[in-house]
Amino acid sequence: MANQGVMTSLRDENHSTPDTEFASEATIGNFFSTDYKRNDDLKQMLDSNKDGLKLEAMKRIITMIAKGRDPSHLFPAVVKNVVSKNIEVKKLVYVYLVRYAEEQQDLALLSISTFQRALKDPNQLIRASALRVLSSIRVPVIAPIVMLAIKESAADMSPYVRKTAAHSIPKLYSLDPEQKDELVAVIEKLLMDKATLVIGSAVMAFEQVCPERTDLIHKNYRKLCNLIVDVEEWGQVLILNMLTRYARTQFVDPNTKQPVPEKEFYEEEEEDEATDEPTRPRSLDADHRLLLRNAKPLLQSRNSAVVMAVAQLYYHLAPKNEVGTVARPLLRLVRSQREIQSVVLTTIASMSVKRKDMFEPHFKSFFIHTVDPLPVKLMKLDILTNLAGESNISLLLREFQVYIASQDSKFVAATIQAIGRCASNIKEVTSTCLAGLVALLSNKDEAIVAESVVVIKNLLQSQSADQEAIITKMIKLIDHVIVPVARASILWLIGEYCDKVAKYGPDVLRQMAKSFTNEEDLVKLQIVNLAAKLFVTNPKQTTLLCQYVLNLAKYDISYDIRDRARLIRNILFPSENIKAIKNPKKIFLAPKPAPILESKYKDRDTFQLGSLSHFLNIRANGYRDLPDFPEVAPDSTVRNVEPPSRPTSVNAERVSVSYAQEEKSKRKPTFYSSSSEEEEVDGEESKSETSETVTESDSEMSELQSEPDQDLDKKSISIQEKTAGKTADSTEDSDSSESETSSESEEDEIRPKAAQGTTSPPSAQTTKSNLDLLLDFDGAVPDIPTPIITPTIGGFLTPIVPTVTTSSSLMSNSVDSIVMSSPAYVANNPKELISRTAGNGIQVGIRFTRSPHLYSSTMASIELHFTNTTAEDLGEIKVANKVLPVGMTICDFPVVSSLPHGQTRTALIGIDFGDSTQAAVFDISIGDRILKLSIKPPIGEIIRAVSMSETYFLSQQVKLRGMQESTAVATLPPSVVDGHAICRRVYEVANVSPIPSSDPLVFRFGGQTLSSKTLVLITLKTEAPKVTVIVNCEKIIIGQMLANQVKEALDKH
Amino acid sequence: MIESIFLINGLGDIVMEKHWASAIPRSICDYFFDVQKSASRPEDVPPVIPVPHNYLINLLRNNLFFVAVISSEVPPLFVIEFLQRVVHIIEEYFGECKESIIKEQHVVVYELLDEMLDNGYPLATESNILKELIKPPNLFRTITNTVTGKSNVSSILPSGQLSNVPWRRADVKYANNEAYFDVVEEVDAIIDKMGGTVMAEIHGYIDCCIRLSGNPDLTLSFINPRLCDDVSFHPCVRFKKWEAERVLSFVPPDGNFTLMSYHVASNNIVAIPIYVKHNIIFREGTGGKMDLTVGPRTTMGKTVENVVLEITMPKSVLNCTLTVTQGRASFDSVTRVLLWDIGKIDPTKLPGCKGSIALQSGATIPSSNPVINVRFCVNQLAASGLKVNRLDMYGERYKPFKGVKYITKAGQFQVRLTIVGTTTVTAAAATFDCDYDRLGLIASATTCD
Fold first, then answer.
1. Domains and CATH numbers, chain B
2. Theoretical Cys-Cys bridge with A601: which of A349, A574, A713, B286, CB 3.0 to 4.6 Å?
3. Distance (Å) from the alpha carbon of B76 to chain A's nearest alpha carbon
4. For A648-665, what is each residue's pLDDT tens digit?
5. Any chain A CB within 8 A of the CB of B19?
6. Nearest to B416 among A88, A402, A476 (CB)
7. Is A471 helix (H, G, I), strand (E, B) or coil?
8. For residues B355 and B323, is the Cβ–Cβ distance under 8 A?
9. Could you tell me the superkingdom of the organism this chain comes from (chain B) (predicted)?
């Protein structure tokens, strides 16, 4: 019936889809026929050339997926549309593809080339979504392609694309764990990233792929601490959790040096915070303090997960007296929705077992409302019990008393247990509680009475006073109490204290013997026990009874009881061949330790608080233990960082802010490590915690767009630091150079192969593997603008970021200090190369992408845009003949199959200009027309951006004096005032990257010619409207031309 | 991370499923259904359910369960908070997050989920960014799209994604520039049977509706900022400025959002705006009588509105016959809930409710004490006394229209009742001033001596 109802309701809500869809499910035969019909129509819609129809079809298909129906048979028809121009269709196809690619791997491969092409798109959103889909297609064959794409995207200039690259890493890792080493290298690079957008995702990838590699964190630790406030909230959670584990391995326990016994601690809490001061442990490591200080503001986050992450960080890492700061934010979360509430309460319950002082002042917040769901009530009850102390017990008991009158019997039972726990923990109220519990014995509710009996039993063991009266009262209850646990408890009590209630014992046993057969097992066992105990103490009255009970037990169904009876019989009434036990009293009435009533959250904090494992109290998959603090802190210098290169972005304010913070963080280490005196000062500082944090971090956080003098200050410090950090760096330098060389040798091996792979035109005839299917497809799709990745063996192994292999003698001694960097500026729009009129209706645009060409790192990659403004469609576009000067090579673009009228096609060509500005002249045939192209590169485009340290820059500049130095003086237009604008103008003419400069009036840029890798150093010295441009370059002509170009660019109004 | 999300309605049907890693078979939901069936109320379903190989983390909103499937360790709050964000986004897009709307808008919801999670890790959760990426559907846009062939999906990366104010849309333009602030305070309290306050807390939040062109930079200051000592902020608020000067300085998101929330803890004295006088007496065998009166307490001269009293009666109560001087009263004999909808309280003529209670035949006097859950609302009053001083705007030329509104509402506001049985010794009444040596747990004197 219910099912019927659901189906009809479904039908009502889906007018758009034919009714048959639902009705069909009733009979299978019918199902196929209608299904077929329906799909037919979808297929037609997908095959049509109207976007509207396609979109409609895709929407219906997505609805099917969402409902769990399987449209996978439409795969071929859908995948075709991956090239659709309509962005929404495309998006829906992506969704479909990701869902079903795993099931139809061969067909899915057909789409790969589209993504490869999209990876080169100038639009960052398209690049990113292509990478997302490509990496989400779980087809093992494409793992190498994805690897290449990730590597490439990790170096993308758009932080959004880099973020997506970080997301793709775990996907590839789960697809092919063998790629781990390479992936770790990418993660390492991404962790270095300065964009806050990227960091969170990089840490996510780190956590999923290589959480054991703490060595990757060292260098980034301070950066992470300083930037964490600006990271998006999800990243914050992961970073905080990761740093908690990291800090546990790197710092010593802040609470060990002067261990404070727990009891004393609570007592002091009663008095004042101030008295706590002398017990404060030694000052923390500067980095440890940095983490705590920077995490603190996040307690104010609106995201409960972030607040929880900070709370657990403080709980696990902070000195005892500081943990209290997290109490109030946690209390705030208690008020949230029930889901959040239960997680937070679990955490508080765990914390309150050991750190009762944290929540004691707020215990009223845990008072129970009737509207709370039962699990929440029980948790609150546990917390209240944990918080109970002499000061609040009277209030608490009054509150408990109200709870006992509640309508929910489970809750009442829990309350009684809570009272029992309070009574046993706080000696002052034990008797009061006991009296109250005894009063409850006369309650009408069976469950309440039973629960009280059990609790009283536990309490009596630890309490000597008044036992007799209470037990007497309970004995009188035995006829009324039915719940087995309670009956068993009463019987046990009689047996245990039989000397005190000697009068009643035998009589109770008599009654019990009568009803023995009808009792529960639990009770039977206790009757047997009681009989034995009574026999031992009072054999005169009970021998017969005891034997009778033992006989009853002998024939019981339960073997437990039979066994017990046999055991007891042999002890009490030994047969001849068994040696009698001398003193059975010692066995049966040995003093027993009182049970300890404690919170069930007691030992949960072995799990990291706030984790899934902690919540469930089960070790979850993939849970990593929180390591214990080391005895001795490992070397802290590993976290020192060499001075950063200036961030490459020209306009983003965001980066400049983070940069300034970066500088700050740099400042810290020297500040602390330079003199031991200062370290002590730091210790002092941390004592006056709150006020200090405010001012200190305030200056850190304040918007840093302005304040040039402060900047100055920072820079001078960073110089100091450099000298200090030098020694530490040297080891690491050799390290990185090692890895560099190894990667070089690898490339050397690969290169010849790569050359083979790309020079021979990609042919599909030789083999017919899945990968070749891709190739086929490459040819079939006409408008591929790039030659890219022909996935033959060498294809995707071509070096993307070439390293300095052929370096001039100048830099051979320290090659590694030059680092390739991404271009600071890339033109988005093509410039006109051949106008419409000159090209007879064909317009050619040109754009320098400033990215290394795949074929060879010495080539500049140039994007050509062909637009057909003629009335007719034109045939294929290809490079016809080229007559090139010596030293110049061209890597052709693959043939573009057609150029319909009104359309634009792009193609990527690679030209090695051989470090000259001579024009590359070649012919292009479009259909039957021939166009003569002459590409003369601007001097700035045959250079590639490299970055290096300032000291290295200066040392190289000294070697390039005299003839090799070209100067020019430019006058700035009044509109250009700040450094940003000046830099921007430089970036527009030359592909160079900024070098950090210690003087705010001097700007430095580094570059390298494409072919011979000759260093090009640009220095700008600004004095009001005048700017002196100095270019140092071994190639004098290039130097002069560049100096003039830069001057012109700066002069321009 | 999050592998899949299932949407399950109250009846136990899967409304929607979406997978990020390999598809997880629907059968995993069977475990959830088992728990769902065994729970007496939907709220009692635990938020995390461990099942073989996986964990199900769920969120209940509008009788719709959002169930996330997790395969390995991840902070549960991370997932819960994300699911909450999903609900929030759906509400922003379609006004409400309920089953029928989701069924209607499968495609948009699917696209949204696809943007919000990448491989189970949140990608874009800021509503302004999502709205630029996937435009919320409305009639006008649907028509223009069919005519022009454009789509609801943007092809460029929203500017917010890369800016340092990701919450703000670029190029906002309004004809009327307005900024409205609602200071809403919810009073949580437990009032004992004598009218004393057992505990009282205030949870306040400031909801904003800001429609300002360009990139305004706002500063909101309070007359008495020290009142709220535990605060949380929307990411747009500059925390350092608050620490130093106790003002809220921020570049606001466009549209509706919660600027800050604060908590005035139980240690402070909280003004309770309402009182309830009650008297319930039972006579053995015959039933009982009740008498309720409601009146305003500390309201600073403001009227208490939308007052509703709700009492869940003990199990043995069969029926209640009630006469009220104001509003409507009803008793549901199945759930045993007595509901009295009063409305506005006129301080000169206090609303009252009198009536008799019928007990099930043969039932004894109920031993459990019911509570009154009270709902009310007071306009133009902030119970904590928080007051906005002024709002300044920098960065733009125009003069915005500004408005502040205060509302005090009942949160979890409950009044405890005592049932007095006339034939039994009223031990309960005496236990109230319990002190150290006397814990008078409620007990009738008739014991089994």
1. 2-162 (3.30.450.60), 178-270+381-413 (2.60.40.1170), 274-379+418-424 (2.60.40.1170)
2. A349
3. 6
4. 443 434 434 444 444 444
5. yes
6. A402
7. helix
8. yes
9. Eukaryota
